[in-house]
Write a structure and sequence with these properties.
alpha+beta; Nucleoside Triphosphate Pyrophosphohydrolase; 9-stranded mixed sheet; CoA pyrophosphatase; CoAse; metal-binding; NUDIX_hydrolase-like_dom_sf
Amino acid sequence: MVQVLKADGRDNLFDDFKDRVMRLPEDRLSHDTGDHVLNPDLGPYARWEGPPRDAAVLIPVIPRAFEPSVILTLRTPHLSSHAGQIAFPGGKIDREDDGAVQAALREAEEEIGLARHAVTPFAELAPYLTGSGYRVIPVIAEVDPDAKLVANPAEVADVFEVPLSFLMDPANHKTQSRVWEGKARYFYEMPFGERYIWGVTAGIVRSLYEAVYG
């Protein structure tokens, strides 16, 4: 159990987490984060030319009685980008979407069958800028524990949960590197059993931790 999640002697991890998010000062929500934080010499959009592409992801937190958890997906191996990787439900913000929240809800419904009436968004994090040219807005939401999830086989190979306490424990936030264009590129990784959480997803988790507990 992560002690930082039990501030003020409270036992309910989800309530404490939500309260902290809701009380975040504006400067914690307005400062862009991204791949470039660990790679300042590469710039925020290292592998992309042109204006950034707007996207949104849902950080779906289930307030389970014993242990609050976060829903994650395993992308199918045939996708054109991030195939076989672990991700939050999400995608590009379409013209028809009324902002990041609606885009995140739509994508979650399309990808994992998460009904909108079972989701209560309560905060948006600062945009996360990716080396592939996306400006991703993470939307944090509470999800009904009884919500039914059905993976869309065209996009999602599996849907699973990870304890919130695991993701918010900085001891689980490892840094790793790979060589790209002759230089070491650094990123976060958070191995969880047989699941390998890394890259943008791990970076967003780290940004969430830093905003709430940093």
